[in-house]
DNA sequence: GCCGTTTTCGGCCCGACTGTTTTCAGTCG
C-alpha cells in the first residue's frame, strides 16, 4: 500500500468524524496525520511502529492505524464510520466544493442520500432552501456533480499505465509465439484513457480462458474478433484479435483516431499484408507518423510535405525546472533533489522553484528564508559542479495579476515561474487579464500550469488561450507543460499555436519528491502529441545555453527605463 | 489524537475567499 492510499484513508476518516460531529481536535489530528503521511520521505510499508510514531504529527495511535491499514486494508474506527454511512453520502464527500458540513445538511436536513438525488435536487432548485445554501452554491454543486459524472469510468494515463502494463507482460508470457501490442488511445498516449486496447495474434478461445482464469478480470462481452472485459478498478479493456500477416495493418488501423484513419483512406485505401506500419505509410507515399501524432489534426499534411517535426524524447532533456524541496511543501531536501538529478537522472541542472510567501498553506518562503536557500544553493553548486542548481521561485500570481515579491527580490532569481493557486473561480475575461498582467511582468520567465486544471477532478479556470499565448510571444515568456499526470497543462492541443508564434515550451515536473521528477515522461508524451521538438523545449537546452538564456533575459531587464 | 512541558494534562487552532449572512461558516490550496 502506497503512502498516498494510506493518507486517503485518514482523510476519509477525518471527514467522517467531522460529518458525525466528533471531537474537532481529534478530527483535526486525523486530517493532519493524513497530510503528514502524504509527505513522508519513505514508504510507510517499510517503516516500524517506532519509526512512524517519532514523525511529527504521527503518534502511537496513528502508527498503529497505519500498520492496520497496511496489513488488513482498514482500521477499526474507519470501518465503523464507513459502516454507518450510506455509500452515496461517502461519494458526496469526494465532490469538489462539498465538505462534511454541507454534506451533513444535505443528508440530515434534506434527506438526500445519493449523488443522483442531489443533482436532481439542484435541478429542482431545492438546495436553496437549506440553511447556508444559496443559488450560487447550488449551481457550483450542480456543476461539480456533472464534472464528476463525466469523469466516471475514465482514467489518467499514468494510472491506466500502471494497471495495464502487467496485462501485456502476462500475455507475452502466456502466448510466447504470438505478437501483442497496445493500440488505440493508450498507444497514442492520450492524457485520459477510457479503455485499454490491445491487439494480439493469440487465438480468441484461448484468450477467453486466460481472462476467465484471472480473478481480477470480469469478462463483459465477446464479439467475432474481439472481447471486452474489466478489472477490479473498473478499467475497461478490449482485446482485438489479429494474425501475423495483418498485424501491422491492424495495428495502424486501431491506433489512429477516426479522423486520422479517414484522412488516410481519403489518400488511398491502406493495404493489408505489409510487414510494418512504416511500410504501409510508405506505400501511401508518406513517412512514418509517430502514434502520438495520429489524431487527425495536421500530421498528414505535414507528412505529405515531408515536414513532420522531429519529436522530442526523454533523453533530449538536459535539466529540469520547477521543482520543490522541504523549504516549502516538498518531501525531499535540496541536496537530495540535486543528488537525484545529477546521479540518477544524469541531468546537467536543476531549477528550484519553491512556493512564494503568499502560499502559506504550502509553507511559502519569506525573504529571510529565501536567503537561507540561496546560501545553500551556492554551497551545493560549489560541491556538485559542473552540475548546476538554478535559483527560481514559483511565484503566486495574486488576484490582481501581480507577482508575490517586490522587484528587488524578484531581480535576484535566475528565473521565475508564475502560476495561479488561489482565487480560482474567475470568468474568462478576469482569468485572461490576470494571466496577461503576470506575463507582462518583466520578471516572469515561465508561465506555470496555465489553466490550473486537475484532470478528471477539477476543470481549470476558463482562459482565452490565443490572447494568453500571444502575450507570451510578445513578452518572450516560456509556457510550462506541467508534467504532473493530473495537470498536463498547457494542453497539447494548444502547443502548435504557441510554437507557431515562436513561444518556447518547458516540460516541468513540478516535483515535490525525487520520484516526482520522473513525471517528465508524461510531459514528454503530451509534448510529442503537440508536435514539440527538442530545440523548442527550454529544458532541452544545455546547462550552458540555459544559463545564457536566463542571463540575456536579465540583461533586457536592466535596459528597462 | 498529538505535543510539550509550567513534563501525563491542557491546549491545540493556516488564511483568503466566497457566499451566505448581517458577523460568520465552509472550503480550498
TrEMBL record:
Domain DNA-directed DNA polymerase X residues, every copy: 1-295
GO molecular function terms listed in the Swiss-Prot or TrEMBL record: exonuclease activity
Swiss-Prot/TrEMBL keywords: Exonuclease, Hydrolase, Nuclease
Coiled-coil region: none
Signal peptide: none
Any Pfam family: HHH_8
The organism's place on the tree of life at top rank: Bacteria
SUPFAM superfamilies: DNA polymerase beta, N-terminal domain-like, Nucleotidyltransferase, PHP domain-like, RuvA domain 2-like
Stored InterPro entries: DNA-dir_DNA_pol_X (IPR002054), DNA_pol_lamdba_lyase_dom_sf (IPR027421), DNA_Pol_thumb_sf (IPR037160), HHH_MUS81 (IPR010996), NT_sf (IPR043519), PHP_phosphatase (IPR050243), Pol/His_phosphatase_N (IPR003141), Pol/histidinol_Pase-like (IPR016195)
Domain called Polymerase/histidinol phosphatase N-terminal: residue spans: 319-399
Official protein name in the record: DNA polymerase/3'-5' exonuclease PolX
Amino acid at each position: 500500500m502506497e503512502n498516498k492510499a494510506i493518507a486517503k484513508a485518514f482523510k476519509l476518516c477525518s471527514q467522517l468524524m467531522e460529518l458525525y460531529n466528533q471531537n474537532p481536535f481529534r478530527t483535526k489530528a486525523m486530517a493532519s496525520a493524513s497530510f503528514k503521511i502524504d509527505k513522508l520521505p519513505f514508504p510507510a510499508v517499510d517503516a516500524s511502529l517506532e519509526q512512524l510514531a517519532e514523525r511529527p504529527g504521527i503518534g502511537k495511535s496513528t502508527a498503529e492505524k497505519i500498520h492496520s491499514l497496511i496489513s488488513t486494508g482498514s482500521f477499526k474506527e474507519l470501518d465503523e464510520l464507513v459502516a454507518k454511512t450510506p455509500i452515496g453520502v461517502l461519494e458526496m464527500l469526494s465532490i469538489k466544493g462539498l465538505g462534511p458540513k454541507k454534506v451533513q445538511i444535505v443528508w440530515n436536513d434534506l434527506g438526500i442520500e445519493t449523488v443522483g438525488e442531489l443533482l436532481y435536487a439542484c435541478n429542482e432548485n431545492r438546495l436553496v432552501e437549506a440553511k447556508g445554501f444559496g443559488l450560487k452554491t447550488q449551481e457550483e454543486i450542480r456543476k461539480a456533480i456533472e464534472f464528476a459524472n463525466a469523469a466516471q469510468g475514465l482514467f489518467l494515463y499514468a494510472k491506466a499505465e500502471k494497471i495495464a502494463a502487467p496485462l501485456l507482460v502476462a500475455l507475452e508470457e502466456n502466448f510466447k509465439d504470438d505478437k501483442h501490442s497496445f493500440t488505440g488511445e493508450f498507444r497514442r498516449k492520450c492524457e485520459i484513457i477510457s479503455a485499454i486496447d490491445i491487439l494480439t495474434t493469440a487465438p480468441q478461445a484461448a484468450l477467453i480462458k486466460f481472462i476467465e482464469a484471472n480473478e481480477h478480470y470480469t469478462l463483459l462481452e465477446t464479439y467475432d474478433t474481439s472481447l471486452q472485459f474489466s478489472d477490479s478498478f473498473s478499467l475497461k479493456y478490449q482485446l482485438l484479435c489479429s494474425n501475423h500477416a495483418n498485424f501491422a495493418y491492424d495495428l495502424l488501423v486501431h491506433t489512429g483516431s477516426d479522423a486520422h484513419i479517414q484522412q488516410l483512406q481519403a489518400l488511398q485505401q491502406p493495404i493489408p499484408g505489409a510487414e510494418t506500419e512504416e511500410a504501409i505509410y510508405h506505400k501511401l507515399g508518406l513517412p512514418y507518423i509517430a502514434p502520438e501524432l495520429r489524431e487527425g489534426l495536421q500530421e498528414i499534411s505535414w507528412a505529405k510535405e515531408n515536414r513532420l517535426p522531429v519529436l522530442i524524447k526523454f533523453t533530449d532533456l538536459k535539466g529540469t525546472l520547477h521543482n520543490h524541496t522541504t523549504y516549502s511543501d516538498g518531501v525531499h531536501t535540496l541536496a537530495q533533489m540535486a543528488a537525484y538529478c545529477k546521479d540518477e537522472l544524469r541531468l546537467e541542472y536543476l531549477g528550484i522553484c519553491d512556493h512564494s510567501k503568499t502560499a502559506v498553506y504550502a509553507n511559502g518562503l519569506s525573504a529571510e528564508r529565501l536567503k537561507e536557500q540561496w546560501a545553500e544553493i551556492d554551497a551545493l553548486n560549489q560541491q556538485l559542479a559542473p552540475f548546476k542548481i538554478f535559483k527560481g521561485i514559483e511565484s503566486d500570481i495574486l488576484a490582481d495579476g501581480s507577482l508575490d515579491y517586490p522587484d528587488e527580490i524578484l531581480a535576484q532569481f535566475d528565473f521565475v515561474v508564475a502560476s495561479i493557486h488561489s482565487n480560482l473561480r474567475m470568468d474568462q475575461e478576469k482569468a485572461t487579464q490576470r494571466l496577461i498582467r503576470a506575463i507582462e511582468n518583466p520578471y516572469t520567465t515561465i508561465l506555470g500550469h496555465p489553466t490550473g486544471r486537475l484532470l478528471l477532478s477539477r476543470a481549470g479556470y476558463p482562459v482565452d488561450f490565443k490572447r494568453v499565448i500571444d502575450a507570451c510571444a510578445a513578452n518572450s515568456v516560456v509556457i510550462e507543460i506541467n508534467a504532473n499526470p493530473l495537470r498536463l497543462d498547457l494542453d497539447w492541443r494548444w502547443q502548435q499555436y504557441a510554437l507557431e508564434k515562436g513561444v518556447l515550451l518547458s516540460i516541468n515536473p513540478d516535483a515535490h519528491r525525487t520520484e516526482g521528477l520522473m513525471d517528465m515522461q508524461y510531459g514528454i508524451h503530451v509534448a510529442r502529441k503537440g508536435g514539440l521538438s527538442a530545440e523548442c523545449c527550454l529544458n532541452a537546452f544545455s546547462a550552458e545555453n540555459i544559463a545564457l538564456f536566463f542571463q540575456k533575459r536579465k540583461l533586457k531587464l536592466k535596459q528597462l527605463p
